[in-house]
TrEMBL record:
Family: Belongs to the MIP/aquaporin (TC 1.A.8) family.
Transmembrane segments: 40-59, 71-93
GO-annotated biological processes: one-carbon compound transport
An MF annotation (GO) of this entry: water channel activity
PANTHER family (UniProt xref): AQUAPORIN-8 (PTHR45665:SF9)
Keywords from the UniProt entry: Membrane, Repeat, Transmembrane, Transmembrane helix, Transport
Protein name: Aquaporin
Length: 100
């Protein structure tokens, strides 16, 4: 089972309401689809889940070095941050426009 299949369960089963990314939660909170307090609770749950997943990965791999990702050759750090902001904005806007 790959990570995309695992991601489909909370989204498709309507457990999280599709809040699998803090940027989505932020966009929905800004758009008034959820309250700010609910958004904060979702953020805490998302961040705690991420921390637990990192520790679980460390335990499962026996502490092996885990490869990290970076920007492509020829792309600077500032360019990478700007692109991340643009993509995150688009992702949040898409989620906001397609929420019921």
């Amino acid at each position: 089972m790959d990570s995309l299949s695992l991601l489909q369960f909370p989204v498709g089963a309507n457990i999280s309401g599709g809040h699998v990314n803090p940027a989505v939660t932020f966009g929905l909170a800004l758009g008034g689809q959820i309250t700010i307090l609910t958004g904060i609770f979702y953020w805490v749950a998302q961040l705690v889940g991420s921390i637990v997943a990192c520790y679980l990965l460390k335990v499962v791999t026996g502490g092996l070095a885990i490869p990290t990702h970076g920007v492509a050759a020829g792309v600077g750090a500032v360019e990478g941050v700007v692109m991340e902001i643009i993509i995150t904005f688009g992702f949040g806007l898409h989620s906001l426009c397609n929420s019921s």
